[in-house]
Batch of 2 targets.
Target 1
Amino acid sequence: MLVDMRVCLQRVSQAKVVVAEETIGQIGAGLLVLLGVSADDDEDNLAWMVGKVTNLRIFEDDDGKMNRSLIDTGGAMLVVSQFTLYGNCRKGRRPSFVSAAPPEMAEPMIERFVELARGQGVEVETGRFRADMQVTLTNDGPVTIWIDSAER
């Protein structure tokens, strides 16, 4: 079974990530991006996902319709690595995470995601890879979208 990059994104009015009681990333209006990388991911998946996230029209226009993208609004992005998006709960009571990329593959892919998003002019803050993070947010809408690159 081929498993690709996964994103759970939430339109937020604010979000922040704290590690060891220190705020390491914080944004106002924009997107909280929980990003999971699989062992099958590659640069094509990565580039597609960045384009999809930054251009997805989920922000309201002047008529109240979701017709504007993160780039259109000038919003920011908070990217948090999230291997648990690959939690397979089909058997037993403990999720299996075997589809998630190993850390030595996932970390550079997440860094590249951030680099590509910044290259599109998006202000990007991040969590800290492999850290115990506390993420807080105010979901605006609420709007929460699941994107899986296997469905492109």
Target 2
Amino acid sequence: MYFKIENPPGQRIQELFILDERVNPDRTYAAAFVTAQGVPEKFGTKRRHLDISAVQAMRQYVEKRGTICTSLRGSVVAV
């Protein structure tokens, strides 16, 4: 994500990427979040409550795939 923190809310994100592709505003993307507290109901469709905690989900993910290595360096850039 490239953002301008000094811009007013709603105008801060300049570019947003998923993997190496720019987000397409005409496309629908699957997303997950831990709590609905920070994600108002007006965002998204087909919301589901899962009977698993975030910690349990992460534990299952790691058990299935093994060690996770990733770099977050440069994932958010102020411009």
